[in-house]
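Subject: Predicted fold for transaldolase, 395 residues

User T.R. writes:
Posting the sequence so we have a shared reference for the thread.
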Amino acid sequence: MSNTKKRAGASDQGAPSPAAKLRKTEENNVHENSLEALRKLSVVVADTGDFESLKKYLPQDATTNPSLLLKAASMPQYAHLMDKAIEDAKKVHAKSEVNSARLEEVIDQLFVAFGVEILKIVPGVVSTEVSAALSFDVDASVAKARKLIQMYAERGIEKERVLIKLATTWEGCEAAKILEKEGIHCNMTLLFSFAQAVAAAEARATLISPFAGRILDWYKKNYPERQAEFVGDKDPGVQTVKRIYNYYKKHNYPTTVMAASFRNIGEIIALAGCDKVTVAPALLEELKSQTAPVPRALSPEAAGHSALADSQKNSLKVEREAAKAHSKSEDVNGAQSASGDEEKLHLDEKAFRWLLNEDAMATEKLAEGIRSFSKDLITLKNMVREKLVMKGTRA
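User M.O. replies:
I've generated the structure tokens; pasting them so everyone works from the same file.
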């Protein structure tokens, strides 16, 4: 037997021991920034229409909306996409006058043009939004979604790489139900409440975007004396996303939860482990520039054992009572279990509208979001109108 002493940290076969592997991991983590750490727990999506930001941060997917595209379309470096959209629209509307149909066509062409360019950069999917003006029209939303998918197909983009964004109204969920059956995948946006999340899951939407930051905005505005409390796990937006995530995982809904509209990196870190997080470039840069640890906050395994906060327990009680009173479904009678887990909830239209009405925050933020996106879309159309006039098109 050899008397030679083994080097510390070496195994019998010469491979690193567990202790050595741990030291190596710790050494590597010293140089890991918070964005890299987050990517190990959640899929990171860029919330931007700016191609340079996409190239810099290399996200898996990208999301767009009228506000982001208005900002991008105003940049000189993207003027060629506006020009191309105008030219492509001529093939559909040959008449020279500027009318609503022609403006709408240019906007559709512009949204798809940005989406196509984004998909040259990101390996995953891009989200393209249906006009907020259609938020309460099932048939028009379905028709617009089909048209956008067809336009992508004509440019060689498979529908699997596109998510159609719909506002999470009752009509939006009904539209998603139809589209998902056709293989057109939907991203339910402007989502602020548990009731909206339940309806989206029941519609079998591919993905939802709960707006953590906008929820926080409402609570800070309406409860200014408590602003200092709304941090980390006590952030109302974080609590809402966690509740939805845990509910989805417990009841095996396939719908992806993509937390959105963050106001600070604390919210992002508090939701590490969420399926996806869509983050603005400024916050991506902040995460990239620091090395603070990013511990896992959410996991499918822990979802069924996550206790509810008192405020959420009260909210759940109200929701169950409302669902019983307003829904014909017999599946709404489940009670909260002793562990604090939430039983499966089914909502019909009456129950959905009642619960949304009873949630002042969600009611206000949904309406505000629809108005804001609609306003930015009108501004974008006015930009298009000016371009058409400058090009000599008869107004």
